[in-house]
Amino acid sequence: MKRNLVKLLFEEYKQDILFYELSQKGIDLSGIAVSNLPIILDIIGFPVENSVTNKPGRFDANGNQVILSKNLADSDYFCRDWLFEKYYEISKQLYRQQKISITDDGIQTETGADDTTVEFKLEVYIDWLYEEFLKLNQSN
After folding, report:
1. I want to staple 8 with a disulfide (CB 3.0 to 4.6 A). Which of 36, 109, 112, 136 is the partner?
2. Among residues 58, 54, 38, which one has the least CA distance to residue 46?
3. pTM for the full predicted model
């Protein structure tokens, strides 16, 4: 399962890099982007974005969920931002890596890490997601 999640995330990473490069040339394709990360978070089992968590005191006597407010700062609402931010930090670091090679024509530089490095870093990220999910379930 983890290998498939890495493949899904790798496809998103490649799309992100392509769309970034195109945006630097004035072409905006962000409206057609496919985001696999929310799907991956769903598969792992994280609560839906801005959903009410099952904390004590949030149910009435009949077992119906009671929503007191939809203030995003409310600790009873689950926010996925920290999970997304970690991915974006990793992808930025990978993109900033430069390869320098010397050819007959001079020095050439390429931006971005090689596929093996990207897949390794994404696998580490998926492992981190599983660890965070376990911590989340232990605290509930």
Report:
1. 36
2. 38
3. 0.74
Q: Which long-range contacts (CB under 8 A, 24 or more apart) does 5-10 make?
A: 5/40, 5/43, 5/44, 5/126, 6/119, 6/122, 6/123, 6/126, 8/36, 8/39, 8/40, 9/36, 9/37, 9/40, 9/87, 9/122, 9/125, 9/126, 10/115, 10/118, 10/119, 10/122
The tens digit of pLDDT for each residue in 21-80 reads: 888 889 888 888 889 999 999 999 988 877 766 554 444 545 555 555 555 455 567 788
Judged on CB neighbours under 10 Å (0-12, 13-18, 19+), 41 is buried
